[in-house]
Design goal:
Keywords: Allosteric enzyme, ATP-binding, Cytoplasm, Hydrolase, Kinase, Metal-binding, Multifunctional enzyme, Nucleotide-binding, Phosphoprotein, Transferase, Zinc
Number of helices: 26
Main location: cytoplasm
Largest sheet: 7 strands, parallel
Number of strands: 26
Helix content: 25-40%
Strand order of the largest sheet: 3-2-1-4-5-6-7
Family: In the N-terminal section; belongs to the UDP-N-acetylglucosamine 2-epimerase family. In the C-terminal section; belongs to the ROK (NagC/XylR) family.
Subcellular location: Cytoplasm, Cytosol
Structural class: alpha/beta
EC number: 2.7.1.60, 3.2.1.183
């Protein structure tokens, strides 16, 4: 993906790749640079009940850090309309001071009224923004009110932070959302796909934060609250959890007549289904007035099975959908927030058809008959699905606050778009001529500790090697010393360091930059936070991953795996490791122990492995295993053949076994064939599990094993898996190149 970015993009003022990953002390330096510790003045503008549920967690976070921020709240749109619940009151109940109330809605609930409302907001907002003089305006989502806000702020040279850009729903909302994206200076998105969409729209990578949805911070902490009293209050005294429906349907402004007809069919289906149902009034989009007429025509407000309401406080709404038997309609909350609880959802029509969803969502795209909707209710009602965290992990607000603190107001206000190059050209920007964008790569092996400066093209510009110390204190001290020396030397080599990538043995949590458990080859290396001390010392972003995963990343970016959708890398060295690339993405697993390929068991009665089990691939085919067998032969005087000699002080190793086999030692050759067969059986298991199109053997022993592995595949694999390509890596140093690719590959960016 990095190849699609114009070289000038990363040469902006202030070095954005370093800028957004500073710790607290660096953030204070930015504040001092912004002007004598002046607080960042943030204007949060909220237009309706839906966007307030996303903005409120951020507002609480800003309010909790008065040493960094000043908060001004502007309320406009349907918040101030009685027919839509006067929802500004919930902002007051949350103890926020509302600086300005702007009546911006022109009633009529049709297309012309929406346009006139945007115009009215554009007339009123400049005076408010002139008085507030905010450093940044936070705008949410895709409403026409938000478009007016973004337009006003952009034309008045005020920075804009857009929440939830890059998403796709399927209506006019997409056009509004993407228009706001082009006006906004900074972006907070909720999903990986949304991040990729923003990048595809030529937005600057360094101004995009993948944070998750702020509402999930509240959703994921609220499940165990007293929900029965809430259900009784809104649904009825005699209603049980999972035995009621929540319905929330809005007009589709690009096809109002059809959406009204669909709403009518939905109500008919709900009446026939005969379950208690909470119906929320639609939003203020064109067509909502007609939808309300349909409700009243069918007597929904007086029907014994229905409760029709204009607004439910978000905390209570969370409990209602979490314990509902089903949610039906076309609201974004159905496909976004409800997935956090695994509640069944029926999404009607096309309004949310482009959004990412969990398996709890059943789409009824052509909801053109009552029977279709009724069948969907019978399929979904009362089901329970796995909880989905597609849209967040509950930690969005801390990330967003950190992102806000890192904004440098001294940077030029003018947006920079990152257009992909139409053809190969050479930039004449002086920084591009003088500097090579590079990464610091660190490889922590069982014996050596290596640091290298690696260029964007995978060239190792300079490499530093030391023995890996035995204690934590000595090791972390040496890493810092070597990295600082390399970073200093990079200046002399005209290399611009974008970050630090670390490859280490053991189980790693790459999200937090922590080594969870180490291999036996590296002592005192469990529960170690590598990211924090190195980032603090170098003021650079730091990524950490397992050495096998790094080898796979190296192949994906620089080696045989480039452009391959599904492949597996196996490292054959002191131990056996590997990494799995599935659909172009690295697989980490639920507890970060995916691709422990060396511990695939190929014999129940095989030799003991360092992991404590028996018959692992590593117990047969690793360098340690071959050394063990070589020592046995040497002790029995069966290793050396003509042309071989070993000095008295020389340690017997796998090298001697390989040399003996080449010189005709039948026992040594048999041991190597057994090792290669064990590796081949492991590869067959991988083929039958992951079905990759390519297997890459890496490491010092790869060349000795490749033909044996191919032979085992021909004899043991299913016919459908036999066509896999098995190749030997052509990368000279996959561990260092993989560590560098953690930094250089944009797909891993923007997660703190």
């Amino acid at each position: 993906m990095g190849s699609n970015v114009h070289p000038r993009r990363q040469q902006g003022v202030g070095g954005p790749h370093e800028l957004y990953f500073k710790n607290l002390s660096r953030q204070k330096q930015i504040m001092e640079k912004n002007g004598n510790n002046r607080k960042l003045r943030v204007c949060v503008a909220t237009c309706n009940r839906a966007d307030y549920s996303k903005l409120a967690p951020i507002m609480f976070g800003i309010k909790a850090e008065p040493q960094f921020f000043e908060l001004d709240v502007v309320v406009l749109g349907s918040h101030l309309i009685d027919d839509y619940g006067n929802t500004y009151r919930m902002i007051e109940q949350d103890d926020f001071d509302i600086h300005t109330r702007l009546h911006t809605i022109v009633r009529g609930e049709d297309e012309a009224a929406m346009v006139e409302s945007v115009g009215l907001a554009l007339v009123k907002l400049p005076d408010v923004l002139n008085r507030l003089k905010p450093d940044i305006v936070i705008v949410h989502g895709d409403r026409f009110d938000a478009l007016a806000l973004a337009t006003s702020a952009a034309l008045m040279n005020i920075r804009i932070l857009h929440i939830e850009g890059g998403e796709v729903s399927g209506t006019i909302d997409d056009s509004i959302r993407h228009a706001i994206t082009k006006l906004a200076h900074f972006h907070v998105c909720c999903t990986r796909s949304a991040e990729q969409h923003l990048i595809s729209m030529c937005e600057d990578h360094d101004r995009i934060l993948l944070a998750g949805c702020p509402s999930y911070d509240k959703l994921l902490s609220s499940k165990n609250k007293d929900y029965m009293s809430i259900i009784r209050m809104w649904i009825g005294e005699d209603v049980k959890p999972r035995d009621y429906i929540v319905a929330l349907q809005h007009p589709v402004t690009t096809d109002i007549k059809h959406s009204i007809k669909m709403f009518e069919l939905t109500l008919d289906a709900l009446i026939s289904f005969n379950k208690r149902t909470l119906v929320l009034f639609p939003n203020i989009d064109a067509g909502s007035k007609e939808m309300v007429r349909v409700m009243r025509k069918k007597g929904i407000e007086h029907h014994p099975n229905f409760r029709a309401v204009k607004h439910v406080p978000f905390e209570q709404f969370i409990q209602l959908v979490a314990h509902a038997g089903c949610v039906i309609g076309n609201s974004s909350c159905g496909v976004r927030e409800v997935g956090a609880f695994g509640t069944p959802v029926i999404n009607l029509g096309t309004r949310q058809i482009g959004r990412e969803t969990g398996e709890n969502v059943l789409h009824v795209r052509d909801a053109d008959t009552q029977d279709k909707i009724l069948q969907a209710l019978h399929l979904q009602f009362g089901q329970q699905y796995p909880c989905s965290k597609i849209y967040g992990d509950g930690n969005a607000v801390p990330r967003i606050l950190k992102f806000l603190k890192s904004i440098d107001l001294k940077e030029p206000l003018q947006k920079k778009f990152c257009f992909p190059p139409v053809k190969e050209n050479i930039s004449q920007d002086i920084d591009h001529i003088l500097e090579t964008q590079s990464a610091l790569a660190v490889d922590l092996g069982g014996t050596n500790l290596r640091v290298a400066i690696v260029s964007m093209k995978g060239e190792i510009v300079k490499k530093y090697t030391q023995l890996n110390p035995k204690t934590y204190e000595d090791r972390i001290g040496l890493i810092l010393k070597m990295c600082m020396e390399a970073a200093s030397e990079a200046v002399n080599l005209n290399c611009r360091i974008l970050g630090v990538g670390i490859s280490t043995g053991g189980r790693v949590n790459p999200r937090e930059g922590i080594v969870l458990h180490s291999t036996k080859l590296i002592q005192e290396w469990s529960s170690v936070d590598l990211r924090t001390p190195i980032s603090d010392a170098l003021h650079l972003p730091v990524w950490v991953d397992n050495d096998g995963n790094c080898a796979a990343l190296a192949e994906r970016k620089f080696g045989h795996g480039k452009g391959v959708e599904n492949f597996v890398t196996l490292i054959t060295g002191t131990g056996i490791g590997g990494g799995i690339i599935h659909q172009h993405e690295l697989i980490h697993g639920s507890s970060f122990c995916a691709a422990e390929l060396g511990h695939i068991v190929v014999s129940l009665e095989g030799p003991e492995c360092l992991c404590g089990s028996h018959g692992c691939i590593e117990a047969y085919a690793s360098g340690i295993a071959l050394q063990r067998e070589a020592k046995k032969l040497h002790d029995e005087d069966l290793l050396l053949v003509g042309g071989m000699s070993v000095k008295t002080e020389e340690t017997i190793s796998a090298v001697h076994l390989i040399q003996a086999a080449k010189l005709g030692n039948a026992k040594a050759d048999s041991i190597l064939r057994t090792a290669g067969t064990a590796l081949g059986l492991g590869v067959v298991n991988i083929l039958h599990t992951m079905n990759p199109s390519l297997v890459i053997l890496s490491g010092v022993l790869a060349g000795h094993y490749v033909n044996i592995v191919k032979d085992v595949i021909r004899r043991q694999a299913l016919f459908s898996a036999e066509t896999v390509d098995v190749v030997v890596s052509n990368l000279a140093d996959p561990a260092l190149l993989g560590a560098a690719s953690l930094v250089l590959d944009y797909s891993t960016r923007r997660i703190y």
